[in-house]
Amino acid sequence: SVDNQAIRDEIKALLQQKNAVLVAHYYTDDAIQELAEETGGVIADSLEMARFGANHEADTLVVAGVKFMGETAKILSPEKTIIMPTLEATCSLDIGCPIDEFSDFCDQYPERKVVVYANTSAAVKARADWVVTSSIALDVVEHLVDQGEKIIWAPDQHLGGYIQKETGADMILWDGACIVHEEFKAKGILDLKKIYPDAAILVHPESPESVVEIADVVGSTSQLLNATKSMPNSTFIVATDRGIFYKMKQASPSKRFIEAPTAGSGATCRSCAHCPWMALNSLELLRNALRDTSGEVFVPEDTRVKALVPLQRMLDFQV
Ligand code: 13P
Ligand code: SF4
């Protein structure tokens, strides 16, 4: 719309003025992803967002995603201003793993390495030995198994269970889940597969075990996007937030992408597979944050210094 165009122009001018760059997750609205593309920013999975932000020379990072992504950027780049369209965009995994309970949990198993998913607060990261994202979790845990380590894993039980199964690691799992991925249903996916027999099933590992089991590819958002480019199939059933369809369709305009069904939704649900917190990121709030330097992310310095250790360990990890 005309209004949108005015806001987009304003954002572009502000990005230049403030020497700022847009770091967006695949689950944000198409309009935000488009802007990131047009302005030299990035659209990425959570590991790539962290790397891109840390390596970029901008003074300000505008993180369009959820709170843990903004905090990760601040932990890695304390000298930069980190702003987000809204600080209310959080994550069910982060909410479900409060630091006090988590710390007590860890204290019960002092001999275990603490591995936490990036989808956690800065305080939880500060209590961990390793931070991982879905794209690197398997490799890190394999490495720990090779070292003979036993593991505490938090907070996503589905991702944790999948890694445990793949690696044979001795893991104690925190009881958390993603409210979006937890809803995908194997039965609904298999029903769709009957209609599209040549469809490949792509699954993010935050999904339940029954869904992961029927996947052709299990991976992070970037890994699933790459699969749609490299696989010959003409149809893909995708069990992750439908925000990723923007890049999937852009990369392969002639392929068909179908949202994996969620509870009670049937095959054509248009409002289920979408993270309510990611959806809070609007163009308008993004513009306001840049214009007013509102939505600035702060992490207490003692927490930041501690959380940096496992985060940096992840970034330095080579397969
Ligand atoms: P990726 O790390 O695969 O991008 O996904 C994490 C996630 O769920 C972001 O909300
Ligand atoms: Fe968290 Fe799930 Fe939303 Fe990702 S999609 S931010 S894991 S609630």
Automatic annotation (TrEMBL):
The keyword Transferase applies. Its cofactor is [4Fe-4S] cluster. GO terms for biological process: 'de novo' NAD+ biosynthetic process from L-aspartate. Keywords: 4Fe-4S, Cytoplasm, Iron, Iron-sulfur, Metal-binding, Pyridine nucleotide biosynthesis, Transferase. GO terms for cellular component: cytosol. It holds the Pfam family NadA. The keyword Membrane does not apply. Its EC number is 2.5.1.72. Pathway: Cofactor biosynthesis; NAD(+) biosynthesis; quinolinate from iminoaspartate: step 1/1. One of its GO terms (molecular function) is metal ion binding. Coiled coil: none annotated. NCBIfam families: nadA (TIGR00550), PRK09375.1-1 (NF006877), PRK09375.1-2 (NF006878). This is Quinolinate synthase. It comes from Marinomonas algarum. The gene is nadA.
